[in-house]
Amino acid sequence: MSNVSVLSADRSLLERVMLCSVTTVPCCVFLLVNCTMLFSLRSKAVFRDTCRYVLLYNLLFADTVQLAISQILYILAALRLRLTYPVCGAITTLSNVVLRISPVTLVVMSFDRYVAVCYPLRHATIVTMGKTRGAICVIWAIGSVNVLSYVSLLRENRFEGLNSLQMKRMCSAENMLLGPVAATFDQVYKLTVFISAGVSISFSYIGVLVAARSASTDKVSARKAHKTLLLHLVQLGLSLSSTVFMPLLGVISQIIDRITLVRISVLFYVCAVMLPRCLSSLIYGLGDQTIRPVLLHHLLCQFSSSVSTRVAP
Question: What separation, in Å, do the N-terminal and C-terminal C-alpha atoms of the chain show?
């Protein structure tokens, strides 16, 4: 019986290590691409002084931070490592802030494309660098407003009644919000942000479609804006799927066994959490003719330097 228990423990550890590898390797690749994209957007003045590239940098930065935090929490859960309530609270609070940044940034980027197509002559005066920086401050303020409510709701948890600040469960936003009021508020706030973003992007999308039928509208510009806004809607939908990731797994866990649940959770994590955070780099980095050569140049330089380092004695 002792040998059987040791073999079972080793098999469980091996399975968890393999699951961590399945997600960690592609996550590291995505983080490398995102960081290279961020570096590329700061490497030239044309990117630093153009409003849509500044907004793209803000979107990529939030997605990269969210991807890194999600992977850290995933590894901790897979290895069954438990944090203290203060440390987990700090991590989940930062995760909640950057989670709201992406949809609101997509709204501002959609508005930029809407103005460029529907009001091309006034675009330079409506969308300026000063207003763009102000919009980014407002975006982060919207994400940070929830932090105050989040911290106040965390006070519902009677930490003083606990024997230890060590968490009994894995670190996640759901496990930090122990009170029903806190959990309800968190879900309502998430849905409000994403629904408002969806309505705003849809309005811009319809406006561009209507403007594209006008004889005075640049057809090429309208077609590009149409595709961009459609991609924004897809990104928003994928980001929304990450908010229902944990509740959906909670429902599924009641009808299937643990091993199947672990495999489904890995699939959901890759599709609902990792994929949306790397789409921005792939869509804009490879689709934009101005960014593409700069991004490929930096990626190739990194690849060449890593190869030469391995070859060198």
Answer: 50
